[in-house]
Amino acid sequence: MPSSHVGIYQNLRRQLDKLFRHVNQGSIETRYRYFEATDRFCQFVAERFRLQKFENVQGKHLIAYLQHMQEKGLRASTIKTDLSAIRFFHDQTNSRYELPDNKAIGQQFGASIERRHFGQIARAWSDSEYRNALELTAAQGKPQIGRLMEFARVLGLRLHETTRLTTPILRKALNDGYLTIKGKGGLVRNVPLTGTSRIVIQKTLQEYGRQRQSRLFVGPSEKAHQVNKQVENWVYTHRDRFTEGEVRLTFHGLRHAYAQERYSYHLQREGGDEKAARMAVSRELGHGRDEVTRIYLAK
């Protein structure tokens, strides 16, 4: 971003921060996801339109951003989520402008946004992509990002769940044989430990367990959503260096890889009963819908 636009973006970011602090609608994961998406939008409108006030966002800005995301090759599901995020925070303002819904945008833009087709895109990281990404974090001196990626890969944690981890939580997991996590929608789940996840937890306690801050990966002067954004930005910036296929890797794709590995395990344990295996994976992921599990298992 040109230096002349940095101040404009920072001003928009402060406005977004204020909205984020005062909104309580939806789950914390959704709010973080929406915050990150809207922050990217703020960078775009600061540079493209030099927009000073978030409440002055209009349909033309939304359509321009839609075109921008489509030019980048983003999936329809990602675009829809990002547009929903922008509307979510815009609704918290006293704006005199009403943002168009997806149908209206499609009419103005000349093409409807593609419908979502669940379970047709393989989002999971391969083992070699995962290894190469970890090696890159080590080479760049960013071991914390690598460690957060490990928790997503070996325990199926969402990004915001990894930045909530504390020393007592991990020590209890080693004693219990499972990690207790409060996830999306406040749902509590117990994720069984494997030999690999035990090693990751033990290494984490050795390296971070003596720090004074309550959350292992969030520094005293940091906020969890800031760390989450740093990690997502790192993956976005560097994924071309370790991606092997055509699918754009995201941090969440590590959770897909975990789901597929656990499905193979449970399928053998359940004697080939696919539904029973999917339900077991569903419980470990922290939701109860079979159709969502099928999305994670897409190959």
From TrEMBL:
The keyword Lyase is annotated on this UniProt entry: no
Keywords, in A-Z order: DNA integration, DNA recombination, DNA-binding
Keyword Magnesium: no
Coiled-coil boundaries: none
Entries under Pfam families matching the protein: Phage_int_SAM_4, Phage_integrase
Core-binding (CB) domain location: 10-94
Residue span, Tyr recombinase domain: 120-299
GO biological process: DNA integration; DNA recombination
Record-level Gene Ontology MF annotations: DNA binding
Protein family (similarity comment): Belongs to the 'phage' integrase family.
Record PANTHER family: INTEGRASE_RECOMBINASE PROTEIN MJ0367-RELATED, PHAGE INTEGRASE-RELATED
Protein name: Integrase
Taxonomic path: Bacteria, Bacillati, Bacillota, Bacilli, Bacillales
